[in-house]
Amino acid sequence: MDLRQFGRRLRAARVTCGYEEAASFAADLAVDLAHYLQIEDGKREPELHFVEDVARLTGRSLDFLVLGRGPAVSRR
Hints:
Layout: H1 3-16, H2 22-29, H3 33-40, H4 48-58, H5 62-67
C-alpha cells in the first residue's frame, strides 16, 4: 500500500463526509489525533481494523481506500 496515496484518499473521504476537522473524525474513530494525523500524512501504516472503521464511517469501499481501485462508495 502506498501510504501517501492512502492518506490522500483518507483525507478526501473525511472531508467529503463533512468532517472538516481531523480531531472530530479521529474521535469518532476512537483513535488519538496525533496517531490519526500520522496516518493521514502518510507517515504511518494503518491497521486493518482502522481501515475497516474508516470504511464504515465514510461509506467508502475497502478496495478504494487501500488500493484506490473500484467504486469509491461501498455497495452495502
